[in-house]
TrEMBL record, chains A, C:
Any GO BP annotation: phenylacetate catabolic process
Protein name: Phenylacetate-CoA oxygenase subunit PaaI
Lineage per the UniProt record: Bacteria, Bacillati, Actinomycetota, Actinomycetes, Jiangellales
NCBIfam families recorded: PA_CoA_Oxy3
GO cellular component: cytosol
Pfam families membership: PaaA_PaaC
InterPro entries: Aromatic_CoA_ox/epox (IPR052703), Ferritin-like (IPR012347), Ferritin-like_SF (IPR009078), PaaA_PaaC (IPR007814), PaaC (IPR011882)
TrEMBL record, chains B, D:
Taxonomy of the source species: Bacteria, Bacillati, Actinomycetota, Actinomycetes, Jiangellales
GO molecular function: phenylacetyl-CoA 1,2-epoxidase activity
Protein name: 1,2-phenylacetyl-CoA epoxidase subunit A
A GO cellular-component term linked to this record: cytosol
Protein source organism: Jiangella anatolica
SUPFAM superfamilies, A to Z: Ferritin-like
Pfam families linked: PaaA_PaaC
Signal sequence, start to end: none
Length: 240, 324, 240, 324
């Protein structure tokens, strides 16, 4: 049986990244990307809603998806730090997308076999969505890595920006349905393959940032939550 | 008369034969240059309105008060981007590129719907836009599903279907507010108070009187790219919307609004057309902001589009080399 | 006797501009400006606190400064649009400071003679503060206007950015202790003098934006308030 | 021995005569080059700490939960900028410019206090920084008000006075939380849990044992720019802070913390010095963020500083012309 903590961690990852991607809407480099990024944000938001709803059920304290999304403070969010980072330019966003979608793909692919039916069902739907997300990011990393000098420079900087946040994805997680450490090898095979095809080096391991799963976030999350939660918290108990 | 003129006459006759019989002009068909130019302007303005229209609603994506509403809003704004894509594609069948049209938007040589120059100040505005602005858009656009230019008519079929869905969602969102707390109901009424007249103004200047505009209407009707006059459409919108406002329990901010048995229509106060002309001219609350946002997004994305172009060229060269 | 609406309008102007200037702290072009901008923000915040407290007293419904700052929604704020505009670059901020401090100077100078003792006392203190704010902005407009080509270009753009928001400062206000329309002439004399000395033209009147006094704000205010109010609203009734 | 060396010896003797008699070295006095260099590094690191330290607290200015707290916080962060100004000015008396020092900060050649590489995650962190971090800073700095270099000693007098005010404000802010709601009290405890050991680490590595650092301590003490050892100061801080934590009703996250009657001091668990060294080396939660923020602010402001310089030069030229 999936633990509430695990459902929350996965749900928070999806929710916070959906919020970040939503910031791109009406700001994307071309109209096709407004559509694509909104679509990815929607998929993630859908995953978040199901997972948070389920986390609330597992908790058994009557909290629904909105109670969990809108009424927890940042110390209670369980997402990895990667997803809360500011969007940066399009290259930073695509570097994050490649890293995260490749991780989510390996995760959901295995979660389809979870003994927990709800989680297996979420994963069965999500793995298809995430396959597209991974492909979308891959195409852009190739284009930017092997496009112009400027795009290459930005893509390199984008990868360097997100790389310190990679390790946290694969940290052990007590009671996880799928051991995160087991995802690293297939993730590496995929991501390094994309970087090689794009003619990009794998960034040198410098720092390694963690803490999200324990609620130790970056200072960015508080601002994201202020925006996310302000209206909802201003009308306690209201239905929307 | 020279043979060329004779051919022109023949082609024009063929064009009108199709239009008059309610047929569809397709991209390869002959068409009068003025028809082509008018259509380009009309479709482009419509496309521009879709993409500028993403801003006022997108303004609330990050702050939507429930995850369900956030998803609905994200999907709606995504649809608007999609509508923009269909419409630019429809315009491209007339021999202009999306880049050219965007350039005309960014340099203020083409317009977008003035309604998007008003700010979305509260969450209820998102519902009001769905209900009123999409409602007005549908009223304007449904007749265009039968317009004479095929690609435009087909784009409108899909767009109207989606917008009608958005309109119902907007109505439902407002209904939730009006059935909610006093603060929510006040928020909904305030939104209606601010969006009512700008929505009426979406149908353009009146057909008669001193504020009547350039008078392209007649020509456009002859060409089958406008089916009803501005005032006819405005009346249709009012007649449709008043009963809905009653279901919502909201008061339309027009003390002279009342059913006229004789006409079989609601009488209503016309919008302030001077304000409409001011906003069209650029002096609305958000004209500068909307255009600046749009241009900045475009400029910020230039390096990405260039990279995609460079990559595509490299790939093509590789394929050519491999094939050689 | 000062009206609650008037005290609120003046208090909101000061509060919202203090919030904006606070965003500069630890981001200013030099350390002296971190000090100066924080100092100006503090002065304005002090004015806001006194005026909002007084507005609450005039209202007589038991609302204190925090109730008014943290629990009103953006439709209920009465500040002019000028003060809620995003900071932009340093030239935009200095253009706004010149415009606003020169306005506040004329305002408070006259409010010292208000029949309302509280308002007269606020004005007596504030006029000295605002005299410094005006001088600070003046010095920078001169430096930027007559500095480098780039600073001049930015200063011109900064003035153009804020100019559509000037008229609103001088709109008639029912029940004002001092008629705003009477401030325009001395304001013009001062500001045009500074621009002339800096070798800058007075921007051409293009648009003229208004609505703040009626609660019709820009879309920027909502984000500012989400940040300002989120924590306070998350703990209703708490003491800090 | 050459006359130069004799003069050097005389100058050094004069320097040590002043230092040994607890007098003050002033900028025009002779001083050993190593003393000058060490002081520059120490004062610069202190100045850098003040300006980097504006960030974690500045993080809460816009979100402070009451206007009164917002004003207190703004004033505090303003004081830190002011401290930075005094300290850079003190360093400048030693023959370096603020620009040079900022450049050394921005290129990571000089450090700032590692404590500021931790994030402020909640409002209570602002109080905890005031109470613990300023408390530790004061413990470190009060002895420096008697240090041998005059300008530095005088800057420290003023700074310590203000920091002691900030420390009391921080304590009072936490007291309000611990006397508030359960959520507020939990917030305060959480802040103490996160800031306790990093605060202890502010006193640097231990004086003995394998983690003892380069050993500048002895030389600095000889020069009168360090008065007590790291461990002495750390003990003093713990002894001062534990009773305050009891007033607050908060639990210091150290199960081994207890009064030792024999020593007349509290026994306590040392901070994780490996973590301290990692963070100093650059691998703390916020090292990258703090430095990037600082460098961006500096780069964004370059055109402003250039304009001010150009304007000043023009004005000077005008005055020169007028005088000619």
């Amino acid at each position: 049986m999936t633990t509430q903590r695990y459902a929350l961690a996965l749900g928070d990852d999806a929710l916070i990244l959906a919020q970040r991607l939503g910031e791109w809407v009406a700001r994307a480099p071309e109209l096709e990307e407004d559509v694509a990024l909104a679509n990815i944000a929607l998929d993630l938001l859908g995953q978040a809603r199901t997972l948070l709803t389920y986390a609330g059920e597992l908790e058994g304290a009557g909290r629904d998806e909105d109670a969990l999304a809108y009424w927890r403070d940042d110390r209670d969010f369980r997402n990895v730090l990667l997803v809360e980072l500011p969007n940066g330019d399009f290259a930073v966003t695509m570097a994050r997308q490649l890293v995260f979608a490749a991780y989510q793909y390996e995760l959901y692919d295995r979660l389809r076999g979870s003994a927990d039916e709800t989680v297996a069902a979420v994963a069965g739907k999500a793995v298809k969505e995430v396959h597209y997300h991974r492909d979308h990011a891959t195409q852009w990393v190739l284009r930017l890595g092997d496009g112009t000098d400027e795009s290459r420079r930005r893509m390199v900087a984008g990868l360097e920006t997100v790389w310190p946040y990679v390790d946290e994805l694969f940290e052990p997680f007590d009671g996880a349905d799928v051991d995160p450490t087991a995802l690293r090898e297939p993730w590496t095979a995929y991501v390094h393959g994309v970087l090689a095809e794009a003619g990009l080096s794998v960034p040198e391991p410098t720092a390694s940032r963690r803490g999200g799963r324990d609620g130790l976030h970056t200072e960015h999350l508080g601002y994201l939550l202020a925006e996310l939660q302000h209206l909802h918290r201003s009308h306690p108990g209201a239905t929307w | 008369m020279a043979p060329t003129d004779q051919r022109t006459d023949d082609r024009e006759a063929a064009f009108y034969a199709i239009v008059d019989s309610d047929g569809r002009i397709e991209p390869r068909d002959d068409m009068p240059e003025a028809y082509r130019r008018t259509l380009i302007r009309q479709i482009a303005q419509h496309a521009h309105s879709e993409i500028i229209g993403m801003q006022p609603e997108g303004n609330w994506i990050s702050r939507a008060p429930s995850l369900r509403r956030k998803a609905i809003l994200l999907a709606k704004v995504q649809d608007e981007a999609g509508h923009g894509l269909y419409l630019y594609a429809a315009a491209e069948t007339l021999g202009v590129s999306r880049d050219q049209l965007l350039d005309l938007l960014h340099t203020r040589k083409q317009k977008y719907s003035s309604i998007f120059n008003y700010p979305t100040l509260t969450w209820a505005d998102v519902g009001a836009i769905g209900w009123l602005v999409d409602g007005a858009a549908i009223t304007n656009q449904v007749p265009l599903t039968r317009c004479s230019y095929g690609p435009y008519a087909r784009a409108m079929v899909r767009i109207c279907k989606e917008e009608s869905f958005h309109q119902r969602q907007g109505f439902e969102s407002l209904l939730t507010l009006t059935r909610g707390s006093a603060a929510q109901k006040a928020m909904a009424q305030d939104a209606l108070d601010r969006w009512w007249y700008p929505s009426l103004a979406m149908f353009g200047p009146p057909d008669t009187g001193e504020q009547v505009s350039g008078g392209h209407t007649e020509q456009s009707m002859r060409w089958g790219i406008k089916r009803f006059s501005n005032d006819e459409l405005r009346q249709r919108f009012v007649d449709m919307t008043v009963p809905q406002s009653e279901v919502l329990g909201l008061t339309i901010p027009d003390p002279d609004l009342r059913w006229n048995d004789e006409r079989g229509h609601y009488d209503f106060t016309a919008p302030d057309y001077d304000e409409l002309f001011r906003v069209i001219k650029g002096d609305g609350p958000c004209n500068e902001q909307r255009l600046r946002h749009r241009v900045e997004a475009h400029e910020d994305g230039a390096w990405v589009r260039e990279a995609a172009g460079a990559y595509a060229a490299k790939q093509q060269a590789k394929r050519a080399e491999a094939a050689a």
